[in-house]
Amino acid sequence: MPIEPPDSHPDDAGIEDLLREVGARVVPSAEATRVTEAAVHAEWHAMLEQQRRRVRTQRIGWGIAAGMLLVLAVAFLGLRVDGPGSNEVAAVARIDGHLLAGPRADDLEARLSGTRIRLGETLQTDGRSRAALVLGSGLSLRLDSDTTVTFAAADRVELRSGALYIDASADVSGAAALTVKAAAGAVRHIGTQYQVRTHADGIAVSVREGRVLIEHEGGSSVGGAGESIRVSTQGEITRAPISGQDASWSWAAQAAPRFDIENQTLAAFLEWLARETGRRVAYASPQAETAARTLRLRGSIEGLDLETALGAVLSTTQLRRYETGPDAIGITMAPIDSATGTRPTH
Amino acid sequence: MKSTFVNDDELIAAMLRGDEAAFRSFFASYFPRLYRFALPRLANDAEAARDVVQGALAKAMRMLPSYRGEAALFTWLCKICRGQIVDYLRANRRHAQNVAHFEDSAELRAVLEAVAAPRADEPAYGYAVTEMRRLVQSVLDRLPARYGDVLEWKYIQGRSVDEIGDLLGVGHTAAQSMLARARTAFREALETVFGSTARDILANLRGLE
User: Fold this and answer.
1) Contact flag B31-A40 (C-beta cutoff 8 Å)
2) Range of the domain at A93
3) CATH fold for the domain made of B120-209
4) Which residue in B137, B172, B206 is closest to A25 by CB distance?
5) Is A196 inside a domain boundary?
6) Are A237 and A111 members of one domain?
7) CA-based, 20 to 30 A from A170: which of A234, A302, B38, B134?
8) Number of domains in chain A
9) pLDDT score for A66
10) For chain B, which residues make up each domain, given as ranges?
11) Same structural domain for residues A228 and A268?
């Protein structure tokens, strides 16, 4: 081990003694460090993404200018340029890991968030990846890990393996219903949140909200909220109850496109988070609800899991959680007495 | 990837390039210091300090591209944090329905800053023992790079140079060199703040007890 040189200044020994005398500085708790680092890290990423978007916008600006020149040149030369086909059926909203896609299942390429998916394309996630798509109707479609799915039509996907989660919120019309076709049957929703998972001997359809219609070898069956229906390849049906907060839903929340909180009300954020986690928002008082509806948020929750995001957002407000059952997010005003009692302002 | 950055400009440039190691270095260095800056200004309320510092660092991230290095990074962060503290104190005094905006009342801001600023950050004499201790610790936090941590690891925690090198992600020689620079910086800072040497300050402290 190398030998450390002696102190080179007469007061160095004094420094050592002084530091020992004053003792160690206060350090934040490990929990505070973890939560804060996650929140600040997400903010840093949001800033980087904004910077990248700005650069892209500048490049697109130059691209448009160059494109206009090209159009003028083409027009001048009397040439005709055909535009791209209009068979786009979805856009990639979020990717955790990698998403492969392409017109042929044996020749897939990596896609980035924001790219369009065309009719006939097959999408694939590996064991460590998930993705979220938004269909033209506004319907949200999420791919779990190890999933392969093909857009057979604008309103029909063929699930070859893995699992899909479909969220048709109230503003998605019934006419835009999507059919999920799998080996053991086809599932069509009637205004709902549900997931379809393939198994070696069939499919499992779990319904979180609304109803689904399942067409299979044995005929057709309807599944309602809180039900998990297993359909075998022979058309046998088995039903079991499933809660909206069951752990089997959590992958879909993790894959969800992140809510951009900037300038949104706290209430909008809470409602989004409640829907993603199969819960409802329970305000302790009209004052708490009014506060949530009038309070506007700033920042980003990018990179945070939903519970951490909820804690981080609430910590910047005068609202807090209160204990409820597992199906609700309880929101209340921070107690005035305790706030003044524990946080005196000199 | 390096885990120690020579100066603030290099650190910020790396963060703006998306360097994860730079972010980790930034957070490890500045979060505890900023927390200690906020804590006494919030009557040692740990939860409030965490909330405020989280808000300040989040804001700093949004403003990072505009950091020009005119002030030391810690000074810049303290300025942002001071604004967050004022916001926090006002919000918790009034229990306003909306997020308090800093610029709403310049008078209120001035009053709160004056009230909230602890004397311990001002060069002074005649402090009580507790304040003297905190002032010395505050000097450590104001040192550049991770000099304060290095001195604390060496002289309070009794870590070896090699252990310090491991914590910083550098070799023995670099750690030893950083320790020497940290001692020099601390000695000069003490002379600036107290106008005396470490030994004299220590004697003063012991005399007060």
Assistant:
1) yes
2) 88-250
3) Arc Repressor Mutant, subunit A (1.10.10)
4) B137
5) yes
6) yes
7) A302
8) 2
9) 58
10) 1-117, 120-209
11) no
Chain A environment of B186 (Cβ under 8 Å): 15
Min Cα distance A293 → chain B (Å) is 10
Q: Which residue of B has its CA nearest to A21?
A: B202
Question: Among A9, A33, A340, whose Cβ lies nearest the Cβ of B31?
Answer: A33
| Domain co-membership, A274 together with A135 | no
- Cβ B64–A23 below 8 Å, yes or no? no
Q: Which of A9, A41, A333 sits opposite B187 (nearest CB)?
A: A9
pLDDT by 10-residue block (mean), chain B, 209 residues: 65 90 91 92 87 89 86 88 84 46 37 40 56 85 87 92 89 91 90 85 81
CA distances (Å), origin B188, targets A8, A16, B201: 15, 15, 13
CA distance B132 to B208: 10
A264 lies in the same domain as A173? no
SS3 letters across B25-69: HHHHHHHHHHHHHHHHHHCCCHHHHHHHHHHHHHHHHHHHHHCCC
- Is the domain of A156 the same as that of A259? no
Give mean pLDDT, residues A267-287.
91
How far is the C-alpha of A90 from the C-alpha of B45, rounded, in Å?
49
| A104, A157: one domain | yes
User: Taking a C-beta distance cutoff of 8 angstroms, is the pair A313, A301 a contact?
Assistant: yes
> Are the Cβ atoms of A346 and B136 closer than 8 angstroms?
no
| Amino acid type, B122 | E
The pLDDT tens digits of the residues spanning A77-89 come to 433 333 334 588 8
DSSP one-letter code for A61: H
Q: How many CB pairs under 8 A join A and B?
A: 176
The domain B1-117 having CATH identifier 1.10.1740.10: the answer here is yes
Q: Determine the distance in angstroms separating the CA of A62 from the nearest CA of chain B, rounded to an integer.
A: 23
| Confidence class for position A59, pLDDT limits 50, 70, 90 | low
